[in-house]
Amino acid sequence: MGVVTALRYRIEAERYPRGPDEAMDIERFFSASELAAVEAAIHQAEGASRAEIVTVATPASDRYDGAPWRGAALGAVSTAVAAGVTSWFGGAWGGALWLTASLPTILGALAGYVAADRIPWLRRQLVAPQTMDRRVRRRAAAAFLEHEVFATQDRSGVLLFLSLFEHRAVVLGDSGINAHVRPEEWQAIIAELCRRMHAGDVAGGLVEAVAACGRLLERSGLEARTDDRDELPNRLRLEHGPDHPHR
Q1: Range of the domain at 111
Q2: Number of folded domains in the chain?
Q3: Angle between helix 97-118 and helix 66-90 axes, rounded to 10 deg
């Protein structure tokens, strides 16, 4: 198994999770018709090649519990500085230094924690991009094993992994795929998938990405054989986030 490529994408549509705690609602991001379309696309793509394509979507690859606390620290420092400047120049709070120092700090910390916990853009800003990259790649690698993408006769499994909160996608190919497809050959497919995701069309982008994968695999010498059989389920697997088992 090898990491073929990992590419970050940005999604700002309201239908995406506010954060990792919204994991249990991932089903609402894909309608029944969208799930059926993804499954049909996989069936068709696999008909043209001997690869087995597995798609997995998760609301988040980690809880990032440190982000709200960093928001609290930022809020506390910001409000304490603002209160101190106001008190120094304006004599606010009637000269009660302890109140001037403590109350704004407490309120700022509370506001910063809540904001970082509930606003996805802010929460993402409080997590280093490299940290999200590592967590998504690690979750994708775990998903490859958990969903048994390796369990094919020719080691010809391909994983398309989407992590919605982090706005990232990862492609993992098994050894039989990596022997035929160079890493850079996937990038045009992922770029188009990212474009569709940015437009708020995750399912449509995934359907097209699956079809493009099938065409690439066929061109790369992995065309279907007469004895091919469908070795892995074609449905989109929806994970429930860091605290819940996949399904």
Answers
A1: 66-125
A2: 2
A3: 150
